């Protein structure tokens, strides 16, 4: 298939690109910088240098790629969460999820894609007795920085992808990443998921699974992953080799 991967140079993108390329898909990956272009070109994919907030340029880039599937792996958390600037960082990331996703959905609709797969988070559920399943409500009553992530970011992202009828929308609610390129090489927080396994979920969702939401985390987490296992054929222990 023809794949448009927004966020190809990010932590998930670096694991996902080899999976897509080795499966024979024709991939166009986005980056915001010329340095990012150089890195992506060495991975053997086509590259679009585009700003997710430039609606017209993004529409042109997606239409030029003529994809069957759009994969949305954009975030603004690569620098980590410095406590001194946590709120500012979360607001930037929420803007990508809110405005960037809306622009990407518009571009996908214009290009008449068949399916969009988007990254969300698995720790946004309203409090209840675990495990959390995909039909449980999100914590839209949250306050403080949690409200920034959920109400200003996750909710509009998921609504934009799922509440339309022009293409099939899939949302992957990821647990907390660990592994190469992330903040930790080993699981150190609740709801862990290895970055390779997270990328593999997006890879599988290209051709598997009904439209909707899927929790993606390791077993024995506070979220149920039965749906991802049953419908995507996903495995939490998936790892790719070699790195690079």
Automatic annotation (TrEMBL):
- All copies of domain NAD-dependent epimerase/dehydratase, residue ranges: 3-188
Q: Name one GO molecular function term.
A: aldehyde dehydrogenase (NAD+) activity
| GO cellular component entries | cytoplasm
| Stored Gene3D superfamilies | NAD(P)-binding Rossmann-like Domain
Supply the InterPro entries for this chain.
Epimerase_deHydtase, NAD(P)-bd_dom_sf, NAD(P)-dependent_oxidoreduct
Name of this protein: Nucleoside-diphosphate-sugar epimerase
Source organism per entry reads: Paraburkholderia rhizosphaerae
């Amino acid at each position: 298939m023809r794949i448009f991967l927004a966020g190809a140079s990010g932590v998930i993108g670096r694991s996902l690109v080899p999976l897509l390329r080795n499966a024979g898909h024709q991939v166009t990956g986005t980056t915001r910088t010329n340095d990012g272009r150089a890195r992506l070109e060495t991975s053997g994919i086509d590259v679009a240098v585009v700003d997710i907030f430039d609606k017209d340029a993004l529409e042109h880039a997606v239409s030029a790629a003529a994809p069957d599937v759009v994969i949305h792996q954009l975030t603004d958390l690569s620098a980590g969460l410095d406590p001194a600037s946590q709120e500012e960082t979360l607001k930037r990331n929420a803007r990508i999820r809110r405005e960037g996703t809306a622009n990407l959905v518009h571009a996908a609709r214009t290009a008449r894609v068949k399916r969009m797969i988007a990254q969300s988070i698995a720790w946004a559920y309203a409090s209840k007795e675990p495990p959390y399943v995909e039909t449980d409500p999100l914590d839209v009553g949250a306050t403080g920085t949690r409200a920034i992530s959920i109400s200003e970011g996750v909710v509009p992202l998921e609504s934009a992808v799922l509440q339309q009828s022009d293409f099939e929308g899939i949302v992957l609610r990821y647990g907390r990443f660990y592994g190469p390129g992330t903040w930790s090489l080993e699981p150190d927080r609740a709801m862990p998921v290895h970055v390779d396994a997270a990328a593999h979920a997006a890879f599988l969702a290209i051709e598997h699974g009904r439209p909707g939401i899927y929790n993606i985390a390791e077993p024995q987490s506070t979220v149920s992953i039965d749906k991802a296992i049953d419908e995507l054929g996903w495995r939490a222990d998936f790892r790719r080799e070699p790195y690079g």
